[in-house]
Every structure is written in C-alpha cells, then in structure tokens.
Amino acid sequence: MMKTNEIRSKFLEYFENKSHKIVSSASLIPEKDPTLMFTSAGMVQFKDFFAAKSTDNLPYTRAVSSQKCLRAGGKDSDLENVGRTPRHHTYFEMLGNFSFGDYFKEEAIKWSYEFIVKKLKIDADRLWASVYKDDDEAFEIWEKYLPEERIVRLGEKDNYWGPPGETGPCGPCSELHYDLGKDMGCGKEDCKPGCDCDRFLEIWNLVFTQFHMDREGNLTLLEKKNIDTGMGLERIASVLQGVTNNYYIDIFRELIEDAEKILNVKYKKKNEEHFHIIADHVRAITFAISDGVIPSNDGRGYVIRRILRRALRQAKILGFSKPFLYKLSQTVVKQFKHVYPKLKEAQQHTQNLIKMEEESFLKTLGKGLDILEGKISDINEKNKKEIDGETAFKLYDTYGFPLELTIEIAQEKGIKVDKKGFEKEMEKQRKRGKESWKGSKEDKRYNYLFENKIPETKFLGYDKNEAKAKLLYVKERESNLEMIFDRSPFYGEAGGQIGDKGKIYSEDFEFSVNDTQKVNNIIVHIGNVQKGDFSIEKTYSLKVDKKRRKAIARNHTATHLLHKVLKEILGEHVNQSGSLVADDRLRFDFTHFAKVKNEELLDIERRINEKIIENLKVSTEKKDIKKAKKEGATALFSERYDKEVRVVSTENFSKELCGGTHVSYTGEIGFFKITDESSLAAGVRRIEAVTGMGAFEKIKKYDNILIQLNLLFKSETKDLVEKAKKILEENKNKQKQIEKLKMKKATNSVKELLENKINVNGIEIVKDHVDLEDANVIRELAQKVKDRAKNNTAIVLIGSSSNKSIGIVMLTDDLTENYHAGKIANRIANKLNGGGGGRPDMAQFGGSRTDNIDEIIENLNNFID
Ligand SMILES: [Zn+2]
Ligand SMILES: [Zn+2]
C-alpha cells in the first residue's frame, strides 16, 4: 500500500526530474491576494508568474508544489457537508505542476498519464480523460495514451476555466478520471465521466491557459501560455489505498486512532461521521493557526472559530465534553512537520490558542445546547417548523453558537432556522451599539455642533502648519473656549494620534490652543484667549506648534515601522489592537500570545533603526479601499474606512491605511528606543517607545544611572556587572553568617523556650515569635526543642522578615495519632494570607502578613485541636 507521504514525495520528485523547481507551500493566509480568505489552490502563490507578460524576468518557468489549502467560509462554502460525505474537506493538500510560458498541453498530458500509470502504477484500463468539447488538440494528444472511447468531451461547466473577472486569461481544461467500477455507478448504458453518479472519480485537473478574453467576449491567443494543474492528495491516496472514502486513508486512520484514545470512544461505522468531522477540523485549525490565524469574531478568525466549535460539538455528541483538540492537534504536527516546518515552530502557540478557545466555548456550550434542545422540543410539540431569529441570535450572542451551528443542529431534527429574523436581531444590536455610543457623556459634550448645524472643517494640515481661516462658531466651556473654523491646519485627535497645540491670532487678538479634537470631521480648537477680542465670520491666522507636530510625526511614522517589523519578527498573527501617538512617546498594542523575549525586542529595535538609517521616503496617496487592500495595505480590523482611503507607505517596506501626519523621510525619526513591554490582556501585548530627542533623553537618563552606579560601586561601566555580582554574593554569605549566629543564640534559648511552655488541654505547647527568617534555621531550632522535650509537646515557631512570615509546626511522635502538624500549619497560614502543609509530625507555613504574628502566638490554642 502506498502511503500518503510517499505519494507526495514521488510527485515532487517526478516533476523535479522534469526540471521543475520544487516550491514550498505558501501560507494559508494569502500574502499576495488579500481578496482571498484562504489559499485554496496551488496556483495562488504563482499569480504573478501567470500574469507576467513574458518569461524574461521569471526566476524559473516550471514549478511543482504540494500546497496547503483551506476551503471554508467563502460564499460557496459547504462546511455542513464536510465529514458527512466521503470527499469533502475543509483542509487538504493539493499537488500541482505549473508551466509559466514553458511547456504546454503535449507535455502536461503526457506527464500526467506517465505519473499516474508508471509511477503510481494505477491500472491504465481504469483511466479516463475528459477534454473541453472544442479542444481537438487535447483530444488528439490523449489518443496517444487512451482508447478513443475513454476520452470524453465535456462542456464549459466541467472543462473550462476562467476568466477570473470580466476579462482576463482563460482556457480549456482536461481531467483525469478513475473508474471505481460498475458497482459504484448508476448502471446506465452511457455512464461515463460527467455522469451524475459516483462511478468516475475526478483525480487530476489540467488547466491550459491559452486565451485572453476581452470585454466583448473575443478570445485572443496568449503569447505566453500557462499550465496549472491540481490533484487532491487525499483523494489520490484513497484510490491507491483502495478505499471508498478519503477518511479511510492512512493519515486519517492515525488521526482517528489518536482521537479514539483521547475521547475514549471506539470508532465504528455508526459514529464515523463524528470522527471524520473531528479529523478534518483539527487539521484545518492546526494548520490555520500555525499560519497566523487567530480565532475571532470576524473574517478568517471567525471561520476558524466556527470550525473549532463544530468539532467540539461532535465530541459532545460522542459523550466527551472537555477540551481535547489541543491534544489531537499534536498528532497533526507529528504527521506533517517534516513537510511543513511552520507547524513545529508554532507548535506551542497553536496548542495554547486551541486550548484557550476550547475552554471558553465549552463554558457556554452546555447551557446553549439546553436552550436549543428545549426550543426544539417546544417546536415539535406546537408543530411549528422553525426556530425564531431571536433564539438563534441569543444563542449566537450569549452562548457563542455560530448561526451555522444552530442551523446544523436544528436540521438534524428536521427544523429550520429563521435566518432573516436572525439578521434583524443582529441589525438591532448594531443600532443599539451605535445609540449607546451616541448617548455617552463624551459625545453629548459636542451636541452643540449638530444642534447648530456646523459644517465639516477642511483639514489643511497634511502639508501646512499655518493657514488663514474664517471663525464660524465659539462655545464657552468652563475656563476654556472651543473655536471652530471653516478650515484648519490643526490635527484633531484621531486614529491614536493626539491633537495639535498652537495659536490662533490676528493683529489685536491671540488665542492659545491647548488641545484639538475631531468630532465627525469637525475640528474643535480648545484653549484660552491671551489678549483681545474675537468676532464670528472674521478671518484669523492659525498656527500649529511646528516642533511638537514634528515630534508627533516622528512617533507616528515609527509606529508604522514598528507594526511592520513586529509582523516580520513575531509573525503574521500580529495585528494592531490600539495605539497612542503623542509628542513624547508612542504606545502600540497588538495581538501576540507570549511575552516578547528580550532578544526579540533587541531585534525589533535594531530592524527599525536600520529602516530609519535607510532614510526611506514616506509617501501618501488617496485610493479606492478595495485597490489599497489588494495592494497589501494593512488595515485595522476595528476601523471602519470610507470608500476612498489614504495610504501611507514607507517606500516598499510598510503600507498602511492611515489619516495621520508623518515625516517625509524615515531618517527624520532619528533614533528609536523601546522603553517597555508588557501584557495588556490575554493575548494582547503593549510596547512603549520613544523617538528622536525623546530617545536621546532616554539614553542619557540610562547613562546617568550608569554613572551613579559606577560611583556607588567604585567601578567602571565595563566591570559594573561583575562588581555588582560580587557584592551580592558577599551579601548572601554575610546573611548566612548572621543566620548562623542567630541560630547559635537561639540554641541557647532552647531552655528558655521550654521553660515558657504552656499547657493546653493536657498538651505542652512551646511557642515563640523568633528573630529568624530562614525556614531551615527555624526548623533546626524546633528540632532541638523537640529532642529535648521528648513527648506530649507541640512546637510552633514563627519568624519574619520585612514582608513575609515563615514558621514551623513540630509535634512529638506520640501526638501524631490525634493531631496533624500539616493541618495546624494550614490553619495558621490562613491567618497570614499564605499557605502551609506537611507531614503529621512536621510542617511548614508562610504568608504575606507579619503584623499579627504575636496575636497568633498568643492564641495558639485556637489552632491546635
Ligand atoms: Zn453513471
Ligand atoms: Zn497611522
């Protein structure tokens, strides 16, 4: 039996021998085509190769790959079918060979036949080919390998590709089909490829891109013709392994066996559907997350969340309701890490993320299912046939049930879901969200703008620091005034960038602007009158504090560099979740699941400063949003953009949708220094940094600290660390000595301790608040007391240092029958805000309180019983 892994390597090797370059799989997140949700075919990463007008600048003209593919979430997604049929998958691998203006039909057909028959040794008699109805050329080539009656002509639907848009490249296809045998078919006389039944399995699709279609539908022959082929690995494996279902092949068997062990449920014909869904889905989420997708409530993240939740529900049906996919994902890593090394690199991250996601869903899954099942039986009783939109929405909103999951569960019971009703509820919530925002305090503050119908302010600040403008409105607020003009060079706080300061003046009037806000495109200048009087409709000079604006611009451009560099160094999963761009610092919040390591921080700093020194030109242009995204501009998930957007690029390094003000060249940033890295929330980190003179001041401060330390330690900078280490070491030794001396002193007090013992309920209790802080030393002392006391004695000694208490409970052996030192220790620890425990005869405890030790000692009888 030929293993799946073997088929993949045979394929790559075969085409490598035909001078193809082996190109490793692209990420599931399409890098070159942001319009695609996931990479769904081998050709996606070669789009530029296909589009090239000539072969002159191509690094190679023949390629072969095994591509990770994910098909889910698009319009024509059939997630509900996955696992229920023998051939549907979300995640699968696609084998493909490609020619970019190199070989064409002759070789493509010949090699496909040769590979299938000679390399894979598939029975040639079972092989059929289909060609496009008008493609005589392909038909004739096939005749060299197959008898005429096993070559079928099919129409556009089956055997024609493209163009992808209204115009563009297109061409006929040819497919190889495998005859599964009469038993699998409909039995009709003319059953052949193209028939509706399951007899003929399509195994390989060859696309011959030979035409260009124009707007009128005219076809012209391309000068550079391309070949694009695709063969599903799991499917061809099912043929070679002689099984009737893709999920029966070796790699799925292994995965299902591990699932059986984890779920402790036997895989049987009766429950195989659930296992198949789990096996498919765990592959999809493991590969997607290791490629940087993070489960979330929109876009790719939502698709992955849905898939994960669907898999969890299958386990629930099998009677298992704990997180398990994170464990099973390790089998996927093990199976494929040699082909897709990213799996191994991201292993920990993937596992953590899956587990977190599982835990959060399982918390609500049970409750949600109860509600849904209650509703379903209710519906059955009342003989209705539909779950109302309100319930579906509640399940979505409160219990995290994707609508599709509710539909699927309902469908199993023959019940529909009111999708329109669901949409209505969704819309209502959106409105509620907006209203609550409108009614908020912050916004009411500016109600006067709308009440007085003040027009939008024309913003001039992208290329001007100073301008003349007409005063339209003035609002008095506490000790401030708010002035609004018809136009302004002042930047109003938006997109994380703080507002400008500056002044507004005329010959006999001066107003200082302390803050600028932007409210629905109206720029509000907030400040105080310095001298004179103003009048509405009069023209004034508006002058932004240039130096401060420049400092803000440095930080803003640096933020863009930081965003890009974080993606480079930490991975594509990094996304901005918030930012602050001020004149004296910048702050950047982003998704990432671990602390950013020190070495990574150094790399980030270094890389950004490299880009500063390269002095990249910063340019801005207005663009249609679709076009901008297509060109790979980073957009923030949380932002809503207009149709026309402003794109800020630093040469070909970073590209972001942004309305802020920037420097003209990165060199103006001067220097970039990270000042802090911290955790903001689960999965969100924060980096703070300074630039320009701010960075210089920071370094100077650090230098100053060094100088002071050198003075204190009587050292030079290069020896400082060694010197500090040495002093710490000395200190530790001294501490030990002190403890020793204290111990000596304490030993002398054994007699005294014993003399001060008290008797409670017939037991002798030796107790003291001792002047010791090392648990070992305290224990030694207690042991000495015990040795001396011999029997019927409980010893409790508590020591303390400035911020913690530490103590020992020791019982003579005769007492352990009725008392337990560990339990006593625990009780005392509770009072100390700490913990404790141990054996029946000896236990240790400690805590963060030290103020009540004497009180505890005084009332020890309360703890011993
Ligand atoms: Zn048929
Ligand atoms: Zn920006």
The SS-based structural class is alpha+beta
CATH topology of the largest domain: BirA Bifunctional Protein, domain 2
Main sheet overview: 9 strands, mixed
Give the end-to-end Cα distance, rounded to a whole number of Å: 72 Å
Helix content: 25-40%
Backbone shape: globular
CATH architect. name of the largest domain: 2-Layer Sandwich
Number of strands: 32
Radius of gyration: 37 Å
> Mean pLDDT, nearest integer?
89
Tally of DSSP helical segments: 26
Question: What does this protein look like?
Answer:
The protein has 865 residues and is an alpha+beta fold. The chain is globular. Helices cover 40% and strands 25% of the residues. The chain has 5 domains: 4-244, BirA Bifunctional Protein, domain 2 (2-Layer Sandwich); 250-431, no CATH class; 444-544, Beta Barrel (Elongation Factor Tu (Ef-tu), domain 3); 551-699, Threonyl-tRNA Synthetase, Chain A, domain 2 (2-Layer Sandwich), CATH 3.30.980.10; 749-862, Roll (Diaminopimelate Epimerase, Chain A, domain 1). The strands form 7 sheets. Strands 1, 2, 3, 4, 5, 6, 7, 8 and 9 form a 9-stranded mixed sheet that branches. Strands 13-14-18-17-16-19 form a 6-stranded antiparallel barrel. A 6-stranded mixed sheet has the order 27-28-29-30-32-31, with helices on both faces. The structure holds zinc ion (2 copies). Its main location: cytoplasm. It comes from Candidatus Mcinerneyibacterium aminivorans. Its EC number is 6.1.1.7. Belongs to the class-II aminoacyl-tRNA synthetase family. Residues 2-701 form the Alanyl-transfer RNA synthetases family profile domain.
